[in-house]
């Protein structure tokens, strides 16, 4: 119990809003710390990062809304990573690191840093951030290339300890930096991630210390219930039925054979199902995504079409069912390449908007450029001989709407 634990026998809507926004602002301050202390333009200007707080039950509680591609990655990866490593093996000041897409991360460039949050001796959850690093090794600068297997894409980090009781595990950092081209940027961005988590833990300490662990836990439960109730109510207002669309990617990056994508959306009573049965099988090529990236596309479309004020947490995900056949291009399995996964996921967003366009013409926008359009290059700096690396995504138009 905190020193000022408040009785929670009666729901207080004002206190609910105070705690709800305090938790969100803790993650927003983490995000600000990341942007300001990072080294790469990937984080400083492209804003390809996110941060969040997951409770001890593995539920996403609060997330700074930075990168739409990370809408569900934290909520899906962190509980799995913690269970795999073992929460009993964690101590205050520790931090785990992982980037493996086949553990339901996203792609290898997205490195997660997960820090346990202890209040006294009690483990109350995890602060986490995810950043797209400019390079993680592999067969091409920026780790973006035409690869057939995940092993060609770069350094794969399972769930391992990066920080032990406040000290960076030097041997692990040496291994990481030995495998990447942009050593200065990667080292700096990893330290920025560690620092951001420290900020998150400080702010959570203040919140739990002021209101008490019992009170905050009570209102976290109410917050998750609130989001679930809100999204179910929004779904009830949507047209009911089954909506279908199909599309294709031009090719898989290696062969000229298009990748067929199939989607069927079923709006039930107060839930919604996205079924991708009929999509082509995964390819020995980069244009595949995992289940987390597919889930993200579904959540992104709903986030665009429903009330934007609904808090993003575990409750938002509960009414959403995603069916994606294992071994397909939208639920790829080990050791398939994933580097083009966000290209596939972005086309899935287009596909889902297309499926709902007749039912919701006043909300669904016209088609977009439909591609992330990733560019990576590197070489030797003539001034000092160091290897440089750069990654960019080329902007494009978004569809018009009423």
The low-confidence parts are none
Radius of gyration, in Å, reads 21 Å
H-E string: HHEEHEEEEEHHHEEEHHEHEE
Please report the number of helical segments.
Answer: 9
Shape: globular
Beta fraction: 15-25%
Distance between the termini: 52 Å
Helix/strand-derived category reads alpha+beta
Relative helix content:
25-40%
Strand tally, please? 13
The biggest beta sheet reads: 7 strands, antiparallel
Q: Tell me the strand order in the biggest sheet.
A: 2-1-5-4-3-6-7
Outline the fold blueprint.
Layout: H1 13-37, H2 41-44, E1 49-55, E2 60-64, H3 73-85, E3 95-98, E4 110-119, E5 122-132, E6 160-164, E7 167-168, H4 170-178, H5 183-211, H6 213-237, E8 241-249, E9 259-267, E10 272-275, H7 291-305, H8 314-317, E11 320-323, H9 341-356, E12 374-380, E13 387-393
Parallel strand pairs: 10-11
Antiparallel strand pairs: 1-2, 1-5, 3-4, 3-6, 4-5, 6-7, 8-9, 9-10, 12-13
Description:
- The chain is an alpha+beta fold.
- The protein contains nine helices and 13 strands.
- The protein has helices at 13-37, 41-44, 73-85, 170-178, 183-211, 213-237, 291-305, 314-317, 341-356, and strands at 49-55, 60-64, 95-98, 110-119, 122-132, 160-164, 167-168, 241-249, 259-267, 272-275, 320-323, 374-380, 387-393.
- The strands form three sheets. The chain has a seven-stranded antiparallel β-sheet with strand order 2-1-5-4-3-6-7, sandwiched between helices.
- The mean pLDDT is 93.
Provide a quick synopsis of the model:
The protein has helices at residues 13-37, 41-44, 73-85, 170-178, 183-211, 213-237, 291-305, 314-317, 341-356, and strands spanning 49-55, 60-64, 95-98, 110-119, 122-132, 160-164, 167-168, 241-249, 259-267, 272-275, 320-323, 374-380, 387-393. With 402 residues, it is an alpha+beta fold.
């Amino acid at each position: 119990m905190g020193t000022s634990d408040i009785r929670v026998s009666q729901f207080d809507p004002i206190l609910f809003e105070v705690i709800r926004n305090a938790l969100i602002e803790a993650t927003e301050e983490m995000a600000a710390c990341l942007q300001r202390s990072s080294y790469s333009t990937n984080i400083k200007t492209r804003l390809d990062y996110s941060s969040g707080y997951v409770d001890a039950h593995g539920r996403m509680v609060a997330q700074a809304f930075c990168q739409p591609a990370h809408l569900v990655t934290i909520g899906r990866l962190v509980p799995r990573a913690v269970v795999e490593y073992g929460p009993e093996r964690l101590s205050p000041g520790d931090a785990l690191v992982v980037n493996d897409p086949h553990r339901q991360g996203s792609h290898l460039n997205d490195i997660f840093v997960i820090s346990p949050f202890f209040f006294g001796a009690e483990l109350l959850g995890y602060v986490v951030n995810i950043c797209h690093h400019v390079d993680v090794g592999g067969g091409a600068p920026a780790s973006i290339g035409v690869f057939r297997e995940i092993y060609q894409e770069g350094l794969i980090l399972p769930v391992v300890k990066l920080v032990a009781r406040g000290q960076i595990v030097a041997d692990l950092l040496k291994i990481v930096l030995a495998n990447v081209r942009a050593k200065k940027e990667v080292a700096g961005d990893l330290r920025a991630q560690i620092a951001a988590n420290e900020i998150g833990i400080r702010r959570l300490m203040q919140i739990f210390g002021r209101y008490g662990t019992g009170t905050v836990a009570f209102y976290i439960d109410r917050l998750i219930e609130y989001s679930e109730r809100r999204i179910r109510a929004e779904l009830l207002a949507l047209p009911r039925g089954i909506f279908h669309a199909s599309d294709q990617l031009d090719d898989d990056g290696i062969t000229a054979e298009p990748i067929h994508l199939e989607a069927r959306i079923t709006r039930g009573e107060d839930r919604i199902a996205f079924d991708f049965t009929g999509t082509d099988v995964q390819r020995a090529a980069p244009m595949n995504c995992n289940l987390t990236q597919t889930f993200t596309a579904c959540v992104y479309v709903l986030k665009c079409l429903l009330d934007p004020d609904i808090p993003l947490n575990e409750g938002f995900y509960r009414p959403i069912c995603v069916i994606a056949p294992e071994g397909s291009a939208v639920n790829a399995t080990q050791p398939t390449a994933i580097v083009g996964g966000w290209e596939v996921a972005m086309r899935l967003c287009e596909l889902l908007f297309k499926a709902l366009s007749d039912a919701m013409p006043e909300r669904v926008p016209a088609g977009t450029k439909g591609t992330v359009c990733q560019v990576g290059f590197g070489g030797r700096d003539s001034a000092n001989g160091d290897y440089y690396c750069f990654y960019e995504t080329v902007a494009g138009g978004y569809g018009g709407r009423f």
